Fold this sequence. Notes:
Strand content: 5-15%
Distance between the termini: 9 Å
Order of helices and strands: EHHHHHHHHHHEE
Number of domains: 3
Shape: flat
Amino acid sequence: MALLCLQAGPAHAFDGATDGAASSPNESSGASPKSTVEPLTKTPPLPDVDPDRVPSTGGRVSLVISTSMIGAGLGAEICSVSGCGDDERRWMGSVLVGAATGFATSFGFSQGGVAPATAASVAAGAHWGTFYAYTIAGTTPAIWRHDDQDDDNRDLPRGVVGGFIAGQVGGMAAGYALDRAFQPTVGSVAMAELGGAWLFGLTAWGGRVAIGDDASDGALQRLHGGLIAAGTVGLLGGGLIGSHIDIPKSRVWLLHAGGAAGVGLGVAMAYVIKGDDLSLTGATIGGISGAAVGMGVTAALTRNMHRRKRPIPVNLSITPSQDGVFASVSGHLR
């Protein structure tokens, strides 16, 4: 807490802020003073305000946009389950109704604003609800029997599409519940998604190359089981790291960019070494290694990036006194 006190008068300056009223000619002559200045009471430092946890218009806009897009996807999935077939007007109408429902619901329930971290958690819940619905479906034989059908009979089983719907709706609910329980920041939510997405993606890439193009349905089912484990470990690991470091979302996006650049450079380096003899396995090893190096280098280069917290405003108080004006300035300074 920083404190500054000033007093201005017609004939003399103020000598102290904590000793009571300033001395005056009346006091030196024995006369009782006409007024005194009360001792200034110091207030404890105000706590930091985390803008990620404060309802705001920006958070509300983010929530409305994300839920509108999620609603559009749900509309298409519901249309698929209800048997829209080749009726393009029904498909488009269902998508529009879903988007409008998502917009109206989120807009109506966010009149007082939404914390940006809450909006990020709900959107992340929908993303990962879809991920789990897909990977769980991949562990069942039904989806692979569908993949073997001819082009005229390739509609996804209704149970699979229904799982997508349940996963997205349940994911949004889970995201909101986790936000209430753990009070994350936008950066920690983004860090959890980064860990899950990259571990899932690299596992899918490496696993698909390892089992080959002629893999059996059983091998593909086991691969999807491994993807569930990889995505979960990545989510939990990224979330744990994000909860222990002060990481802004911008740094997370730089980590994404560093990983992507590392993949490209790793594959290019593998080609430079092996030339036309480079195998798919060699390119995969180069890409995965490059991703790890790219993220590591980016993390080191951005280690000084931290979130900016909302500053506490400076308070100014001006009180008239017998000898002039008593002014105080206070604020929480770092």
